[in-house]
Amino acid sequence: MPEPTKKKSFTIHDLPVSERPRERLLKFGSEALSAQEILALVLGRGIAGESVMVTAQRLLSEFGNLKGIANASIEELSKVKGIGVAKAAQLKASFELANRVEESYLYEKEGKTVRTLEDAVNLVKSRLRGKKKEHFIVLLLDTRSHLITTSEISIGSLDTSIAHPREVFKEAISASASSCIFIHNHPSGDPTPSEDETELEVVIL
C-alpha cells in the first residue's frame, strides 16, 4: 500500500494572486495593507516550505506589535525562526528609514511658534517615543520664539545622557538663535533628574 502523500507547507504562492501583499499594494495602495502584509513585503520571502506571511505573523506574536519589533535588537530579531541576521538587518534598516522620514517632518515645522512646554513637547515627542537610549535635543528659537531648527546634541545610554555646554552653545551660536529649549528623554521611566543633569543645568543657567 503506497504511503500517503505529505501535504506541502503553506507558501505565499498558495494564496490567490489577488490576496498576495504585493498585488494588494499595487491595486489598493500601501495604506490598505495590514502590519503583517507590510512586514512580509519588507522580508521578501519566507523559509523553505513556509510562507513569508507566517514569518511576519511570528514576528508580531513574538514582539506584540510593530513598535515591539522596531525596538528589538538585531540579536533578538535574528533568534526568531525564519529571520536570521540578514532579515533582521533589513527590518532594522526599514524602521530606521521610517524614523528618518518622521524626523524630516521637523524641518517642515521650522517657523512654528514655541511658547509653551506643550508646544516644545509636541515637536519632539514622536521623535523620542520608544527610544531605548537617552537623547539630548535642543530647540533653537529666534527673537519671536519661532523654531529655527532642532539639533540632536548627544545620544547616551539607558540612564545617562552626555552633553557638554560647549556643544549646546556651538549649535545655538551657529544658528544665531535668540533662545534655546533643552529636551531629553528618560527611557528608564524615572523622570528624576540625575546628578549629571543637575550639574549640566547649573552650568547652562
Task: Write up what this structure looks like.
By secondary structure, the protein is mainly alpha-helical. It has two domains: 12-103, 5' to 3' exonuclease, C-terminal subdomain (DNA polymerase, domain 1), CATH 1.10.150.20; 109-204, 3-Layer(aba) Sandwich (Cytidine Deaminase, domain 2), CATH 3.40.140.10. It contains nine helices and three strands. A three-stranded antiparallel beta sheet has the order 2-1-3, with helices on both faces. β1 and β2 (147-155) form a beta hairpin. The longest helix has 25 residues, at 84-108.
CATH superfamily of the largest domain: Cytidine Deaminase, domain 2
Q: H/E order of the elements?
A: HHHHHHHEEHEH
CATH C-level class of the largest domain: Alpha Beta
Helix content: 40-55%
Structural domain tally: 2
Unreliable runs: none
